[in-house]
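User: Run a structure prediction on this.
Assistant: Running it now.
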Amino acid sequence: MLINANSDKPIFVQISEGIEDAIISGVFPEETQIPSTTEISAQYKINPATALKGINILVESGVIYKKRGVGMFVSQGATAKILSVRQKEFFDSYIKTLLGEAKKLNITKEEIIKMIERETNE
Protein backbone atom coordinates (compact mmCIF):
# COMPACT_ATOMS: atom_id res chain seq x y z
CA MET A 1 0.00 0.00 0.00
CA LEU A 2 1.34 3.40 -0.97
CA ILE A 3 0.34 6.62 0.76
CA ASN A 4 0.78 9.85 -1.15
CA ALA A 5 0.66 12.86 1.17
CA ASN A 6 0.53 15.14 -1.90
CA SER A 7 -2.56 13.47 -3.36
CA ASP A 8 -5.90 15.24 -3.53
CA LYS A 9 -7.36 12.08 -2.01
CA PRO A 10 -7.41 12.19 1.82
CA ILE A 11 -4.98 9.81 3.54
CA PHE A 12 -7.77 7.96 5.37
CA VAL A 13 -9.39 7.20 1.98
CA GLN A 14 -6.03 5.98 0.65
CA ILE A 15 -5.75 3.68 3.68
CA SER A 16 -9.25 2.31 3.09
CA GLU A 17 -8.66 1.75 -0.62
CA GLY A 18 -5.23 0.24 0.03
CA ILE A 19 -6.72 -2.34 2.38
CA GLU A 20 -9.46 -3.04 -0.17
CA ASP A 21 -6.79 -3.57 -2.84
CA ALA A 22 -4.99 -6.00 -0.52
CA ILE A 23 -8.23 -7.90 0.06
CA ILE A 24 -8.97 -8.12 -3.68
CA SER A 25 -5.43 -9.28 -4.48
CA GLY A 26 -5.53 -11.95 -1.75
CA VAL A 27 -2.99 -10.39 0.60
CA PHE A 28 -5.73 -10.39 3.24
CA PRO A 29 -8.03 -13.34 2.53
CA GLU A 30 -11.50 -13.42 4.00
CA GLU A 31 -11.60 -14.25 7.73
CA THR A 32 -7.95 -13.25 8.22
CA GLN A 33 -6.66 -10.44 10.41
CA ILE A 34 -5.56 -7.10 9.00
CA PRO A 35 -2.90 -4.86 10.58
CA SER A 36 -3.99 -2.79 13.56
CA THR A 37 -4.39 0.97 13.42
CA THR A 38 -1.21 1.21 15.51
CA GLU A 39 0.72 -0.90 12.99
CA ILE A 40 -0.65 1.09 10.05
CA SER A 41 0.08 4.45 11.68
CA ALA A 42 3.63 3.38 12.58
CA GLN A 43 4.37 1.91 9.14
CA TYR A 44 3.14 4.96 7.22
CA LYS A 45 4.06 7.55 9.84
CA ILE A 46 0.53 8.89 10.10
CA ASN A 47 -1.73 9.81 12.99
CA PRO A 48 -3.48 6.73 14.49
CA ALA A 49 -6.80 8.61 14.25
CA THR A 50 -6.29 8.88 10.48
CA ALA A 51 -5.64 5.13 10.22
CA LEU A 52 -8.72 4.44 12.35
CA LYS A 53 -10.85 6.68 10.13
CA GLY A 54 -9.79 4.64 7.08
CA ILE A 55 -10.52 1.36 8.82
CA ASN A 56 -13.90 2.64 10.04
CA ILE A 57 -14.95 3.18 6.41
CA LEU A 58 -14.44 -0.54 5.87
CA VAL A 59 -16.22 -1.48 9.09
CA GLU A 60 -19.23 0.66 8.14
CA SER A 61 -19.40 -0.96 4.70
CA GLY A 62 -19.20 -4.46 6.20
CA VAL A 63 -15.85 -5.31 4.60
CA ILE A 64 -14.09 -5.84 7.93
CA TYR A 65 -15.28 -6.55 11.45
CA LYS A 66 -13.83 -6.36 14.94
CA LYS A 67 -13.20 -9.33 17.19
CA ARG A 68 -13.16 -7.81 20.64
CA GLY A 69 -9.72 -8.04 22.20
CA VAL A 70 -8.21 -9.68 19.11
CA GLY A 71 -8.30 -7.20 16.21
CA MET A 72 -9.90 -6.50 12.86
CA PHE A 73 -10.73 -9.24 10.39
CA VAL A 74 -11.84 -9.42 6.75
CA SER A 75 -15.53 -10.31 6.52
CA GLN A 76 -16.85 -13.31 4.65
CA GLY A 77 -17.95 -12.06 1.21
CA ALA A 78 -15.77 -8.93 1.41
CA THR A 79 -14.05 -9.55 -1.91
CA ALA A 80 -17.34 -9.85 -3.80
CA LYS A 81 -18.70 -6.76 -2.04
CA ILE A 82 -15.64 -4.65 -2.91
CA LEU A 83 -15.65 -5.85 -6.53
CA SER A 84 -19.35 -5.08 -6.90
CA VAL A 85 -18.97 -1.54 -5.58
CA ARG A 86 -15.85 -0.85 -7.63
CA GLN A 87 -17.40 -2.24 -10.83
CA LYS A 88 -20.38 0.09 -10.38
CA GLU A 89 -18.02 3.02 -9.75
CA PHE A 90 -16.01 2.03 -12.84
CA PHE A 91 -19.16 1.97 -14.95
CA ASP A 92 -20.40 5.31 -13.62
CA SER A 93 -17.02 7.06 -13.80
CA TYR A 94 -15.53 5.67 -16.98
CA ILE A 95 -18.02 3.85 -19.19
CA LYS A 96 -20.77 6.46 -19.02
CA THR A 97 -18.22 9.22 -19.65
CA LEU A 98 -16.67 7.27 -22.53
CA LEU A 99 -20.04 6.66 -24.17
CA GLY A 100 -21.09 10.28 -23.74
CA GLU A 101 -17.91 11.52 -25.38
CA ALA A 102 -18.17 8.88 -28.13
CA LYS A 103 -21.71 10.04 -28.88
CA LYS A 104 -20.50 13.66 -29.25
CA LEU A 105 -17.75 12.50 -31.61
CA ASN A 106 -20.03 10.17 -33.60
CA ILE A 107 -17.95 7.13 -32.67
CA THR A 108 -19.92 3.91 -33.03
CA LYS A 109 -19.98 1.00 -30.60
CA GLU A 110 -18.07 -1.09 -33.15
CA GLU A 111 -15.37 1.58 -33.43
CA ILE A 112 -15.03 1.71 -29.64
CA ILE A 113 -14.66 -2.07 -29.52
CA LYS A 114 -11.99 -1.94 -32.25
CA MET A 115 -10.10 0.75 -30.30
CA ILE A 116 -10.20 -1.35 -27.13
CA GLU A 117 -9.10 -4.47 -29.01
CA ARG A 118 -6.27 -2.54 -30.69
CA GLU A 119 -5.03 -1.29 -27.32
CA THR A 120 -5.27 -4.66 -25.57
CA ASN A 121 -3.45 -6.44 -28.40
CA GLU A 122 -0.44 -4.11 -28.25
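The chain is about 60% helix and 5% strand.
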